[in-house]
Amino acid sequence: MQNKGAGQVQSNERRLNAIVNNSAMAIFLMDEHQQCVFMNQAAEELTGYRLQEAMGRPLHDVVHHQHPDGRPYPIEDCPIDQAFPERERMRGEEVFVHKDGHFYPVAFTASPIAGDDGQPVGTIIEVRDLTEDKAREAALRESEGRFRNMADHAPVMMWVTDPTGYSTYLNRKWYEFTGQTAAEAEGYGWLEATHPEDRERAEHAFMQANASRTSFRVEYRLRHASGSYRWAMDAASPRFGDEGEFLGYVGSVIDIDERRKAEEKLALQEERLRLALEVAEIGQWDVDHASGSMFWPPRVKAMFGISPDVPVTLEDFLNGVHPDDRERTQKAYESASDPELRALYDVEYRTVGKEDGIIRWVAAKGRGLFDAQGACFRVIGTAIDITARKASEIRLSELNEHLEFEVTARTAERNRVWEMSGDLLAILGFDGRPKVINPAWEITLGRDMDTLLNLSFREQIHPDDHKAGEDALRRLRRGEAVERFEHRLAHADGSWRWISWTFVPEGDVFYAVGRDVTPEKEAAEELENAQEALRQSQKMEAMGQLTGGVAHDFNNLLTPIVGSLDLLQRKGLGGEREQRLIEGALQSADRARTLVQRLLAFARRQPLQPAAVNVGKLVDGMADLLASTTGPQVRVVVDVAGDLPPAKADPNQLEMALLNLGVNARDAMPQGGTLRITATRESVRNARGALKRGHYVRLSVADTGVGMDESTLARAIEPFFSTKGIGKGTGLGLSMAHGLAAQLGGALTIHSREGVGTNVELWLPISTTLPDSDRASNARVFTGNARGLVLLVDDEEIVRASTADMLEEFGYEVQEADSGEAALALIAQGIRPDLLVTDHLMPGMTGVELASTLRERFPELPVLVVSGYAEVEGIAPSLPRLTKPFRSAELEECLAALMAN
Description:
- Residues 12-69, 143-213, 269-340 form the PAS domain.
- Keywords: Kinase, Phosphoprotein, Transferase.
- Residues 90-142, 216-268, 345-398 form the PAC domain.
- This is histidine kinase.
- Residues 789-899 form the Response regulatory domain.
- This protein is an alpha+beta fold and 901 residues long.
- It folds into six domains: 12-129, PAS domain (Beta-Lactamase); 145-261, PAS domain (Beta-Lactamase, 2-Layer Sandwich); 282-391, 2-Layer Sandwich (Beta-Lactamase); 414-516, Beta-Lactamase, CATH 3.30.450.20; 615-770, Heat Shock Protein 90 (2-Layer Sandwich); 778-900, Response regulator (Rossmann fold, 3-Layer(aba) Sandwich).
- The strands form seven sheets. It has a five-stranded antiparallel beta sheet with strand order 2-1-5-4-3. A five-stranded antiparallel beta sheet has the order 7-6-10-9-8, with helices on both faces. A five-stranded antiparallel beta sheet has the order 12-11-15-14-13, with helices on both faces.
- The longest helix is centred in the middle third of the chain and has 45 residues, at 527-571.
- The N and C termini lie far apart (181 Å).
- Mean pLDDT is 80; it is low at 726-731 and 774-783.
């Protein structure tokens, strides 16, 4: 039995040794003298000593108990060495020194061991290495230091709580923002700074998150140090330890007062926009271009026959568009989302209801939104159901077709005005977008019709004029007409054109008539010169009117004189002396007639009457006049070629042009010089500018004056351009000569050099006929054998009497009348004339009006119109004309040609 008991004790000791040696805790067993009798493997590893080395030695000798700086640790100061068996159980921390000399912290527990009699027989000491725990504590302290430093310098308020929700840390920004002291903010002090109306909600959110240990975010008003409340956002996340234990929260508070106010303002604006769109029955749409997802409110979905709760994509949109409109609509969308084009999405299309199959009309507008790299990420816009409007348009179209026949004539006339008008005509909607424009827009703005119709008024006008344009549209929407509204429209070349508008509202559109006033605007800075030119022009016009009136009266006075003298000469009355006096009187009358014709040419009352002109004879006849006009300091030299052919010209106008050129040459030679006039035959084989290929008589007027520089030469033929100074010239001389040559089919050229002189050349086409003085008359002469009744009408009695004598001499019977009305009265009495000879300008009815009235009754009635002005205004080209004064032979020739036809 004893052997069996001893064996059981040994077995228990082995088990106990196995347990002790496998323990992670270092265990030392000391006897009653505090000398080591046992230590386990963990103790050997902790101290670096083997059991054999520690046996019989105090623990102090094994672990040294020295300070980290090497100073000895007295036994009386060492807590672990005071753990004698007779004492109570002790706990503490100590610093051990390893056998290799390094220090390490430990935690110990010393418990007395009692013997069988209950008395202490030794001590058991358990030691745990604290090196890793101390390192973690140091790292934690360092981390907390860094966190506090970072938090105190953070731009937001930061806080930390323990697991119970008690605030353990608030950063400096919190105290600066709230103005709280540390004592006020401790614990749940943040609730004291929360707005009373938000306090319960904020506390509930925090407590609920704390209980569930989840992240939270809450917005509430926080009291600022100034006493006002500002909106703040509080967000926090839970903290957990290494073992997963809940440690509390760390969070931040951000001042969002400005953002909150902006959001409230935005929400208000969005609500206003929503109400406006709702009232206007406009639907919004928003496409995420990258993903193809779409935002459609119920109103837009209804336009595509889709229920409000059904999600939609970009594919649903494209499939919902009518097949005939799909390609056009898709291209419009692609243009709006194209980074290069970025066009306005503005299109009308039909939809086929996805659920109901109904066809509807939709008008959509939108714009693409692009990021910094130019990629389109959204396309947003509006859509309006215009089915009713389209139905009205169809009904209106049918009505228009029904009425088309009745308005064809008026429409054609309107279209002619519309197409030919130089003014900008348009019909526009109250959104400023043109619906219809006339071709004058293309001419004025240099853009094609489609481009102009796709641009709104705001897109075309100058940015500085936008406000004025909006004001005008507001007035039009109120039903007011707008007159003399001026703004700038963009031209295709980048310039701006000033347009003066008249706008008249009617129904849902307004009509616009605009005139391009850019030239007037640009001419403002030249107004003073233009006014001076106008005064000169008015002076010339007044002189012309006066001269023309005097010349007309002279013609009426000369007509009976010339007629009477011509009759006396042809009858041979009187002797040789009397005939000589009559011939002299006729020559004077002819000279007076020539003078009157020149006066009419000067007054611009003489029409251009091209004829075959002997230029050499004309120049010789003008030589004396030019010499007297230019003065004694200027030598006039005339050089005319002997074989000069006749030229096609108006002799009166040519004389006037030659006189003007002579005056210009005189003014260019203030110190005197030579004026050389030459006339030669020239041929042009290759066209040179306005001078075409052909045969010409070149009339040259050259001087030795000051000449012209290049800028003056370039403007020489401009009307009213003059270098003579204000009041010394009209600036019309060269322009008149240029116009004369151009009308005749020739040209005017100028060659000039400063300090050398100027040569002006008139190139006149060679005539295919002979001059009147060189051509035998082929006209039939009546020689008193004419027959028939002539109705002679003239308001001047002496003119009428002289003409009647000539007609009676030809053999006609003459019936006189002093006005058109008197002539019609004679017709009413029953006379039937064989010929009508009438003056043109008379009180009441003109000669042309009389001729037109009589030809309605007598279509074959020959008519000869006689005029003192010899002008063509109001006289049809088909009516033969005779200019006062005239000789009997001239009247006879006209009548012969008239009767022959």
